[in-house]
Write the structure tokens for this entry.
Amino acid sequence: MHDHAPTGIRGAGHRRLLAISLGITAGSMIVQIVGAALSGSLALLADAAHMFTDAAALVIALIASGVAARPANERRTFGYQRAEVFGALVNGVILILLSVWVAVEGVTRLLRPDDVEVAGGLMLVVAIVGLVANAVALWLLSAAQQHSINVRGAYLEVLGDLIGSVAVIVAAIVVIGTGWGRADAIASLFIAALLVPRAVKLLGEVVSVLAESVPQGTHVREIRDHILATPGVVGAHDVHVWQLTRGAPVFTAHVVVDDAALRDGKAAEILSELQGCLSKHFDVEHSTFQLEPAGHVEHDAHA
């Protein structure tokens, strides 16, 4: 006895937003690469590299979102929603590698500040272009990232890049006002520092999903209390909650029903009440219940 209601978090709308964000990010990345080459700014180059990672993340998100939208079949009964998780895993690894590269280059520039002369004016103009592009992309992804782990990965990267653009702008102003070239290298290190915690958080969320842990913010004891409060229910055991991907929780439980309720044919009514409760109070749209008479309670080994 189960409910296969769709989660509603995979669709053409998300893919369209990702495609638009990809176009904006790729265009801004090209502008920053050219600006970095002309101005000699490491911070701009780091920001461009981050935008390249953003573009790669958006491509991965688009591919994963399309794959996740494929229907379930006899081999993959839950469909392909886990594709988003694997896409997010790739995003996290790329973020870690990028942060290491930026940190190494930033330290090198700090130790040898006279190797490259930075054109602060051009650096400032290009950084402002990047800031505007990131702000638009961030706005486009803000709603969708609440329901998709992979869109969230792209959102976090764009957010980090927006903050990085602010850092580049500040560094450019310092270079213009004081001529202190090390400000460019410091901005680069700041961008690297922004990448690490976001990567760790994203990878932590991926591990949580793959380990089939209870979704963050979901409390099994509270769900159990709601089940036991349902008329006709006298017990619940073997309660399991996990998620296929961000925003797609799955719930199973053995529910012990009063014998009188079963004799009166109220099983369907109880099942409907249980599924409605989980959907309304806990946003669990895929729930499976095994209804058992009071004299037949069989716990599994993992209870």
